[in-house]
Amino acid sequence: MNRQSLLIAAALFTFTSTSHATKLITFDEISNLSASSVPDNYEGFKWTNFDYVNPFSSTSGFESSGARNGLVSLRYLAVNHGGLPAQFESTTPFTLNSAYFGSAFKDGLQVTVEGQSGGLIVDTKLFTVNATGRNLETFNWQNVDTVLISATGGTRNPLYGSSTSNFTMDNLIVSNVPEPESYAMLLAGLGLVSLMARRRKSSSM
Q1: Structural domains in the chain (count)
Q2: What is the per-residue pLDDT across 158-173, written as a single tens digit (0 to 9) for each?
Q3: Are residues 155 and 61 in the same domain?
Q4: d(CA 106, CA 157)
Q5: Separation CA 64–CA 105 (nearest Å)
Q6: How far apart are CA 109 and CA 131, in angstroms?
Q7: Are 138 and 189 within one domain?
Q8: Quick check: helix, strand or coil at residue 96?
């Protein structure tokens, strides 16, 4: 492989590896508190109406719930505060890949996930979750900057003492989307490589 090919391969590798980084969000490393709001800037997002809870803690408010059935990793997951719609957003576009969802108190809870871009809804998915387990939901929505999640309906599971429409979310996977500047830098780099190759060819004639 000649020098020009090596430079092109290096540029492409750097571009794809840095601009499409995948991120697993588990909510497990925020703190050792039993329950609290997910802080802004956690994993680069602004979080609204999201709490992180340890459903095994006697002070979490979820110790007698199906939230533990929604756990995927360790002891923490996210829930929508008070059953209210919750959202997370970023100042730069990203891809929503997947997440595990469950219900804390209700069976047949209807969860609606909306992907937004610039204030406009560009993707929507509706699914049902129960307090007895968790669902892996796959989205692969690109170029969204806000994800809004709401829950309605369902019936209270007789094992649990609340009828609040709390969904659970764990092991959220997102990935970065290349900014226009990234594409511009890649094109500029490839153009420079092409220019160097032409000059080298001209000087050899």
Answers
A1: 2
A2: 999 899 999 999 999 9
A3: yes
A4: 5
A5: 9
A6: 9
A7: no
A8: strand
Amino acid identity at 116: Q
Q: Crossing angle for the helix pair 3-19 and 180-203, nearest 10 degrees?
A: 180
Do both 27 and 14 map to the same domain? no
Measured in degrees and rounded to the nearest 5, phi and psi for residue 19 equal: -95, -10
Q: Are residues 157 and 95 in the same domain?
A: yes
The predicted model gives 170-177 an average pLDDT of 91
Please tell me the total number of residues recorded for the chain in this structure. Answer: 205
pLDDT tens by residue, 62-96: 999 999 999 999 889 999 999 999 999 999 999 99
Q: Is 175 helix (H, G, I), strand (E, B) or coil?
A: strand
Q: Please write down the long-range contacts of 9-12, taking CB distance under 8 Å and 24 or more positions apart.
A: 11/186, 11/189, 11/190, 11/193, 12/186
144 pLDDT band, cuts 50/70/90, is very high
* Residue 30 confidence class, pLDDT cut points 50, 70, 90: confident
Burial class (CB in 10 A: 0-12, 13-18, 19+), 203: exposed
Give the chain's radius of gyration (CA, Å): 22
Domain, as residue range, for 199 = 1-20+179-205
Same domain, 28 and 66: yes
In this structure, the answer to whether residues 172 and 75 fall within a common structural domain is yes
Q: Return the pLDDT at 183.
A: 46
111 and 140 Cβ atoms separated by less than 8 Å: no
DSSP category for residue 86 = E
